Amino acid sequence: MIPAQAELRGLGFRELAAKLAAARLTDPPRGEPADPNAYYYDWYLAIRWFTEKFVETCCELTDAEWPRYSALADELFRAAAEFSGIERWKLYFDQFRLSAALLMRVPPRPDVPVLDPDRLLKDYLSVLSISPEEAARRKARRRELRKAEEQQLWETSWLMSQIKFVEHLFSESPELDEYRKWRQLWPEPPR
User: Fold this and answer.
1) In the predicted model, what is the mean pLDDT of residues 9-32?
2) 69, 20 contact by CB (below 8 A)
3) Distance CA 75, CA 72 (A)
4) 132: Cβ–Cβ under 8 A, 6 or more apart, which residues?
5) 75-124: per-residue pLDDT in tens?
6) N-terminal to C-terminal alpha carbon distance within the chain
7) CB neighbour class for 140 (10 Å; exposed up to 12, middle 13-18, buried from 19)
8) In whole angstroms, what is the distance from residue 178 CA to residue 131 CA?
9) Dmax (CA) of the chain
10) Which residue, 67, 69, 76, is CA-closest to 25?
11) pTM of the full predicted structure?
């Protein structure tokens, strides 16, 4: 259950992470939230503050802290996808932005999921709901698309906007070959 925003406001990264870790995020809420809007914003702000403070603090973290905070990030995003009501593509965007921002500040570490550029690439490709070939067809007939089709097309580009900053860290792989197809389709993703 996500703590209320009043409990998290103003905390430093380690204190915030300790509060979130103790909250048992993956436990389903007990009943319906009294105020669904407040519940949504509790999740929204917890994710926002956690990701911002993680990036701010990343250069100070010890080797022993990285696996714990990486696992907490995964747990936070997984629980938010299940319980928060935040749209999945927005959660993916925040998750990709977190990894990319960290990778721009500290060296990659394949043993720490949030610092593994190849995992980031695989995660990006796994959440796309259409192939690069289908996206190219839709892009060519953009004006004729239904809203849902246009949304899927837009999401592929928008999510790429975060990972393009660390694409130089990706290892040669079949996933990188697929990513290159997306990059040809979207040479300059939105900023």
Assistant:
1) 89
2) no
3) 5
4) 178, 181, 182, 184, 185
5) 999 999 999 999 999 999 999 999 999 999 999 999 999 999 999 999 99
6) 33
7) exposed
8) 9
9) 53
10) 76
11) 0.91
